Amino acid sequence: MIRFITRRLMFAVPTLIAISFAIFALLDLAPNDPTGQLPLTIPPEVRAQIRDSLGLDQPFHVRYAKWMEQFFVNEPLNLLEEAFDIEIGASSERPRIRSWATRSPVVDIIAERMPQTLWVVGMSYVFGILIAVPIGVISAYRQYSWFDQIGTFISMVGFSVPTFFTGLLAIILFSVMLQWLPSIYDTTHEVTDLSSFWVQVKQMLMPVMVLALYNAAQLSRFMRSAMLDNLNLDYVRTARSKGLRERAVLLIHVLRNSMIPVVTMIALGVPTIFSGAIITEQIFRVNGLGQLLIVAIQGADIPLVQTLTFLFAVLIVLFNLIADVLYGILDPRIRYD
Q: Which of these, 170, 189, 186, lies nearest to 178 by C-alpha position?
């Protein structure tokens, strides 16, 4: 197992380098100008000075090398210094990736927005998994029953209807008509006591519910299909012929093998938590990473877009590895030696 993880990590390094080059090149070659949104009264020579101060006068390979150094060396060193309250070298002179719009370090901006995304999108993903797995198991075991028919209908609706429609529908129903829940997520709200915690729960309820429905709809279909593929196999009949209880056959043997394709989908869906549900965050005004990415794209803030996009790529590679490791835990027949 350790050798397999080591080989995968060694393979991941050139993969991430190639991805970083592609992201940097595509965004660098895109038609963008950091001075494009400045007032027209600013003289051309001042605009040229601004571009020079941002390093845009340097060749492509120099700018890419500097970005790589800042991302892989300088930013991790800054994180270590903040985490352990130590100083490594001349930290004040260490260049960092900075936003063109705010001139603030990009990693600090991402860290500031991360909790809101994890609260809303992360919670919805957890609830989606907790809802989808039992629904998929019961639907497969009681195939074509009323439970399976209702579950299939709700899953099809949840998967087919886009989140911007269900989000607006939830706002109209629960905020406008019933006036039970707030329509806008207040990111400045702080939880200090029980009443403020209840306010936090109420403002999280709609975006979490909308995203959990969408996630559960996909996962429950995968879970049901995987369970049906295993229920009629020989090892299930053998386990039943040995006198095992039906619950043991279902939950120990069938569910364990059926989780392999579902784990792949769950692992590959985890990076979307950090990228944020862009549309849903826009609807409920959640000041998370998805909304940050939209603002960065609209403002042509290339360093912020590059860093966010590459972070999502790193998460996808990482959770691919985690999914492969979980295969060996779920299915003893899988060996990595």
A: 170
Rounded distance, CA 118 to CA 124, Å? 9
Domain-wise residue ranges, the chain: 109-299
Distance CA 158, CA 312 (A): 25
From the CB of residue 285, how many other CB atoms can be counted at a distance below 10 Å?
Answer: 15
Nearest to 95 by CA among 55, 50, 56: 55
| Mean pLDDT, contiguous 10-residue spans, the chain (337 residues) | 77 87 84 66 74 74 86 82 74 77 85 83 87 90 88 86 86 88 81 84 88 87 87 81 82 81 81 69 82 82 87 84 76 63
Burial grade of 90 (CB within 10 A; 0-12, 13-18, 19 or more): exposed
- Homologous superfamily (CATH) of 109-299 is MetI-like (1.10.3720.10)
Residue 272 is encoded by which pair of tokens?
């979307």
Per-residue pLDDT tens digits for 295-330: 888 877 888 888 888 888 888 888 888 877 777 776
d(CA 251, CA 230): 12
How far is it, in rounded angstroms, from Cα 17 to Cα 206?
39
CA dihedral 277, 280, 285, 289 (to 10 degrees): 10
Q: How far apart are the first and last CA of the chain?
A: 7
pLDDT at residue 335, rounded to an integer: 63
In whole angstroms, what separates CA 220 from the centre of its chain? 19
Q: CB neighbours of 218 closer than 8 A, spacing ≥ 6?
A: 132, 155, 159, 265
